[in-house]
C-alpha cells in the first residue's frame, strides 16, 4: 500500500480503522485507499453505504473498506516553477 498523503510505500496487507502512515502520520483507512471508491458513483462509493463519508482523506469507520489494488493519490501541490509557467498564460 502507498500512502495517499506522502506517496511512500507502507508494508501492510490491510489498514485497520486507526492505522496511520509511519512516515507522515496520515490516516490509511480512508476512502481513497478503498477498492470501492469511485468518483463516478453516488457518494463516490460502489457499496450501498447508509451514511456517506464526506472527507475521503480522513479515517472513517466504514466496514466495507477493502484495500485498493491500485494506488490513488491526493493531488500534489504544484511546484513554484510550474505555477510561474502557468501564470504566463493567464490573463
What key attributes describe this structure?
1 helix, little secondary structure, about 90 residues
In one word, what is the shape?
A: globular
Cα distance, first to last residue? 42 Å
How would you spell out the order of helices and strands? Answer: H
Helical stretch tally: 1
- Radius of gyration, CA atoms, in whole angstroms: 16 Å
Largest sheet: none
- Count of individual beta strands: 0
Number of domains as seen in the coordinates: 1
Structural class: little secondary structure
Fraction of residues in β-strands: under 5%
Please describe what this structure looks like.
By secondary structure, this protein is largely without helices or strands. It has one domain (1-91). The protein is built from 1 helix and no strands. The chain has one helix at residues 80-88. The chain starts with 79 loop residues before the first helix and ends with a helix. The model has no long low-confidence stretch (mean pLDDT 83).
Amino acid at each position: 500500500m502507498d500512502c495517499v498523503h506522502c506517496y511512500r510505500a507502507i508494508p501492510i496487507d490491510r489498514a485497520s480503522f486507526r492505522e496511520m502512515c509511519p512516515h507522515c502520520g496520515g490516516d490509511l483507512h480512508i476512502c481513497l485507499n478503498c477498492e470501492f471508491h469511485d468518483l463516478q458513483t453516488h457518494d463516490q462509493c460502489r457499496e450501498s453505504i447508509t451514511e456517506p463519508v464526506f472527507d475521503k482523506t480522513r479515517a472513517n469507520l466504514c466496514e466495507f473498506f477493502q484495500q485498493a489494488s491500485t494506488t490513488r493519490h491526493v493531488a500534489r501541490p504544484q511546484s513554484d516553477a510550474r505555477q510561474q509557467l502557468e501564470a504566463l498564460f493567464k490573463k
